[in-house]
Design goal:
It is built from 4 helices and 6 strands. By secondary structure, it is an alpha+beta fold.
């Protein structure tokens, strides 16, 4: 089974591939609308994240993401609160919330 994430295919088992794709697509559209480059952002299923090992946080998330560039700066509020709030509202509209694991990765959870 494969999941399409922002133009990439990631192989792995997931409980709900369609739902994950919906969330990732919405993030991609939000980023494009706000002129945010997601080149350095990668998404992982819970199994893929656990298989990576070494991380302590967000282990029960529905979806994981790593990011180092623009999205990282937004989620860590390095450039103010406007886009952070916008991303928060996007997640809420989708029926999800997110938390930072560390400064470079975050987990996405159902409300």
């Amino acid at each position: 089974m494969s999941i399409v994430y922002i133009g990439k295919q990631i192989k792995g088992n997931t409980v709900n591939k369609t739902e994950h794709n919906r969330v990732v697509k919405a993030i991609k559209v939000w980023a494009e609308t706000n002129d945010i480059d997601l080149t350095d952002t990668n998404f992982y299923t819970p199994k893929e994240w656990k298989d990576r090992g070494g991380e302590e946080y967000c282990l029960n998330a529905e979806l994981m993401a790593t990011t180092e560039g623009e999205l990282n700066h937004i989620l860590n509020m390095y450039n103010g609160y406007e886009l952070h709030t916008s991303f928060f509202n996007l997640m809420d509209t989708l029926g999800y919330w997110f938390e930072m694991g560390t400064s470079w990765y975050f987990g996405i959870y159902k409300n």
